[in-house]
Structures are given as structure tokens and as C-alpha cells.
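wait is this the right file?? whatever heres the structure
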């Protein structure tokens, strides 16, 4: 009789684990972007204009958690980049830093898989103060929620997303080729329209 509860417990755990596995399967979008012409797979559902922006938790440069919901009531530009220590990401983040100073009421967040310490070092060296860099390295929560996690590299795809004051996605650009810069003018224009 003592064995039956043990078997029931084991079977219950196996059923529970098999149920959990199904919930964590990630949408795969093969060939959604390229890197130097080679196709890459993005994990997670593609965001949709006009829908509520998914919340996420990432790390600030001081290792404190930051959520998208903490910026509610503000226009937010999410700039997703593979790594600040690469030439295109460097140029892009500096450009958004310059433009952010001209957009009162708009918060520009640059997200990457870089460690928070590396982001802090880069910002100090680059003199970037108008853009807040955030690290998704721990759980890739942002990357998965926005369908921007590159499966093959565990880096974020290059993308720009504009979210209005009510938390609704108003603009999305997933740059098709990782080595190219985004369309700054279109993203900034989208942000200006919802200020």
C-alpha cells in the first residue's frame, strides 16, 4: 500500500512536466532575417501594430530589474540590437541618443544580450546619456515576448518598436538584414505622431 502513493506521485509529476513542456514551446520563424545573407530563425511571436505591448523584465546597468510597465504613460522607443560592441549597433545607439534629446517625453530603451557591465562600460565610453541600455541576457524575456530572439546566436535581432502612452504598439521595423541600420526617420516620425 505504501508503494501506490509513490507511483501515483511519480505519474502525477510526469503528467505535470509534460504539460509544462507544451506551454514553453516557442514559435519559430525560420528565415525571418538574415546575417550577411544567411537565413536566421527568430523565436517568439511577431508583435502586431495596434495591440498591447507585451510586458517584460530586463536588467539595468546596475543589475536592478526594469519592466516595460514602469514606463506606462510615456511614449517608448524600443531599439533592439545584437551587441553594442559592434559597429552598426554602436552607430545606431549613438544616433538614437542624439535624437532622444530632441524628443521630450519619449523614452528610448536600447536592449541587447550584452551583460549590464558591458553596457555600462560602452555608455561611459560613448558618452550616451539620453538612451537607457537594458540587458536581456538573463532570461531573454524581451526577445521571446517580441519574437526577436535569434535562435542560432542567442542574440536579439535588430528592430525598432514604438509604443504609445497607453502601451499600444504603433510602429514596428524588424530590420531584415542584421548588418544594416534601421529606418531612423520612420521610427522617429512614428514617435512624434504619438507624443
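ok assuming it is, sequence goes like this
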Amino acid at each position: 500500500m505504501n508503494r501506490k502513493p509513490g507511483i501515483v506521485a511519480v505519474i502525477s509529476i510526469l503528467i505535470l512536466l509534460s504539460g509544462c513542456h507544451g506551454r514553453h514551446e516557442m514559435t519559430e520563424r525560420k528565415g525571418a532575417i538574415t546575417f550577411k545573407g544567411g537565413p536566421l530563425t527568430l523565436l517568439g511571436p511577431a508583435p502586431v501594430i495596434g495591440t498591447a505591448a507585451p510586458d517584460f523584465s530586463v536588467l539595468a546597468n546596475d543589475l536592478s530589474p526594469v519592466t516595460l510597465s514602469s514606463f506606462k504613460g510615456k511614449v517608448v522607443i524600443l531599439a533592439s540590437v545584437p551587441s553594442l560592441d559592434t559597429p552598426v549597433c554602436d552607430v545606431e545607439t549613438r544616433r538614437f541618443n542624439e535624437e532622444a534629446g530632441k524628443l521630450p517625453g519619449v523614452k528610448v530603451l536600447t536592449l541587447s544580450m550584452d551583460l549590464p557591465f558591458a553596457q555600462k562600460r560602452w555608455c561611459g565610453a560613448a558618452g550616451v546619456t539620453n538612451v537607457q541600455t537594458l540587458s536581456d541576457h538573463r532570461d531573454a524575456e524581451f526577445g521571446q515576448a517580441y519574437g526577436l530572439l535569434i535562435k542560432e546566436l542567442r542574440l536579439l535581432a535588430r528592430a525598432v518598436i514604438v509604443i504609445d502612452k497607453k502601451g499600444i504598439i504603433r510602429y514596428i521595423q524588424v530590420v531584415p538584414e542584421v548588418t544594416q541600420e534601421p529606418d531612423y526617420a520612420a521610427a522617429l516620425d512614428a514617435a512624434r505622431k504619438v507624443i
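The radius of gyration is 19 Å. so i think its the right one actually
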